[in-house]
Amino acid sequence: MTEQTSPTDPLAEWFSVSALSRIIGVGDTETERAAIAWVGSDGKRWRPLLTYKVFQSLGGTDTQAIIPAAVAVECFHKASLIHDDIEDNDDERYGLPTVHARYGIPFAINVGDWLIGAGYRLLTAAPFHPEVRAELVRIAADGHSRLSQGQGWELEYCRTPAPLTLDLAIRLYELKTASAFEVAVQIGAAAAGATEEIRSRLSVLSRFFGITYQLMDDRDDFAPHPGRTGDLQSIRPTAYLAAACASSDPAIKAAVEELWINNDRQLPLQRLGELIARSEIPAQINRMCDDYRGQIMRLIAEIPAVTLRELLESLSQTIFNNR
Predict the structure, then answer these.
(1) Which residues of 221-260 are buried (b: 16+ CB within 10 A; e: fewer)?
(2) Residue 95 φ then ψ, to 5°
(3) What are the pLDDT digits (tens) for 55-84?
(4) Is residue 4 included in any domain, yes or no?
């Protein structure tokens, strides 16, 4: 797999195979080798970048101290991608075979589980005060639980799909996507000794950030990618499906109603996708993205810590413009 980093990524050297093997501590098993290769492979690494930059902007000066925590954040993220690809039956990511497509589902599950364990092990060994380490583990465990709750709700919905509201779709985004961003920023903040006020503001900001990121991801996914089923065609709970369920367009209403009564949903889903593409729904989703991005910038503007505020302004623009 080729290396792909963001334009502002200062962490690239941490994610080489040799560096990861040293940071995480790897034995000579196929599971460990596959896990390290996956963590060091493609991806923009926004989450560990947030951990590192938030730590730095809040007065954290020991770059070496935050490295294990930032790598742990990426371990958690890459483990979730392995499991998500299995659950969504996606055979490609970054234009390459997913871990389960390459090694098989049982092996891929084990690689993901190993990465979760490695992430927690890194946090418990991070060179901070024991109370800080305990807080880092608590943050990760809470985020891990919420992400799994969101994924479980999505899987339940896919088994028994039904009319979807936008509020429910947004709640799913909070659980599945915002949770991971919150873990990233809160670990950086806690490691730097941030105040409760700052951490509370970061929690709210993470919620809006995750929702916006997922809305933009849905927008990208609306036109199915090679090797991926496409969320709408898999009848997953997305803002596009929620907007279709609320539409007053007679053709869209008829296509949506057919979904719940037709055992073979592929034809109705294809028709619904074509109707959505010609409707006002894509423009509606674009407006939602713009509204949430505007809210993010307003929330950032209210942060009293100047260095953190400037950092988040810059990173928000970079992340959303380089998805």
Answers:
(1) bbeeeeebbbbbbbbbbbbbbbbbbbbebeebeebbeebe
(2) 75, 10
(3) 999 999 888 999 999 999 999 999 999 999
(4) no
Q: What are phi and psi of 11, to 5 degrees?
A: -100, 0
Of the chain, the end-to-end C-alpha distance in Å amounts to: 19
Helix, strand, or coil here: 238?
coil
Find the CATH number of the domain harbouring 165: 1.10.600.10
pTM to 2 decimal places? 0.89
- Residues 284, 289, 292, 298: what is their CA dihedral angle, to the nearest 10 degrees? -120
Residues with Cβ within 8 Å of 219's Cβ and at least 6 positions away in sequence, in order, are 282, 285, 286, 289
Instruction: Tell me the C-alpha distance between 6 and 193, whole Å.
Output: 27
Total domains in the chain come to: 1
Beta strands in the chain, from DSSP E residues, in sequence order:
92-93, 96-97
Q: 268 is in which domain, residue-wise? A: 12-321
Cβ distance 135 to 144 under 8 Å?
no
